[in-house]
Amino acid sequence: MHDPVIILAPPRSFTSIVCGMLGQHPQLYGLPEVNLFVAETMREREGVLAQRRFSEHGLLRVVAQLFAGEQTIQTIGLARRWVAMRAHRTCVSVFRELAERVSPRILVDKSPMTVLRPEYLQRIRRAFPNARFLHLLRHPRTQGDSLWRIGGPLAGWRLEALDYSTDPPTVDFQKAWYTMHMTILTFLEGVPKAQQLRVRGEDLLADPDAHLQQIAAWLGIRTDPEAIEAMKHPERSPYACLGPLNAPFGNDPQFLRAPALRRPSAPLSASLEGPLPWRHDGQGFSPEVKALAREFGYQ
Question: FRET partner for 195 with CA separation of 20 to 30 A, picked from 3, 40, 73, 212?
Fold first, then answer.
């Protein structure tokens, strides 16, 4: 069993499509959001996800697919019992069970909740010291616009996006973008450079051949044209569509409706200047957000 590849990024940062792409490589297996590093035990995980029930769907779909061979209302029901029987197991042990099931392929995890807390990231590091971490970026304006359009606060990110400098507090997605990336950067300071790679999602989607080859070479897996071509078809993932009625999600809903590779909807040149559409006071990005975004190569 190989240590996994972990995609680190805030929500709405191309994680679904990038994980779907990587998962089509013959030596990798891309997961939906299984959220197996947000608690120590499966029972504790249940409590963490209690307010985000849709966050359970990814693991249920994986279990149904890997252990029953298909995702149906019936196999999702079986998957719920499979998970319930492991209530007193550690989440890491369940992740290992999935990794052993797909071995010799390598698991690719893309659960955005993982970057909410430093302890979640450290749990991965302790369990899988040789894990590879792909730090995936998206411009803060287009990422915030995306959350705003789908009702980010309703999607479970209200606390992470509240700006308490106003009265009443303002929902401001730049706060979540900055906090999560700083959590990632602080964590990666303790990870060997060879085990981490930073990629702008806009660059990857604009030139997938070059960037997929770069990622494959970093991982030490096949870089031949056949393997790269396979990764350009995320729609072939068993998790690239809506699941059964009792577990329809596990990935971004927009990706599930249109999972094929496509260029980013907004150009890389999105501006760091000007007011933010999700704020009602006309304010723009804070100096801290601008500085970090420019460090990432955004303007």
Answer: 40
Residue labelled with tokens 């890491």: 92
CATH number of 5-295: 3.40.50.300
The phi and psi torsions of 33 (rounded to 5 degrees) equal: -75, 100
Residue extents of the structural domains in the chain: 5-295
CB 241 within 8 A of CB 226: no
Residue 181 in contact with residue 288, Cβ under 8 Å? no
pLDDT tens, position by position, 161-179: 555 565 555 668 898 899 9
Q: What CA–CA distances, in Å, run from 271 to 70, 102, 267, 299?
A: 44, 42, 10, 6
Q: Which residues pair with 163 in a beta bridge?
A: 170
- Tell if the pTM clears 0.85, that is, is over it: yes
Say how many C-beta atoms besides its own lie within 10 A of residue 151's C-beta: 10
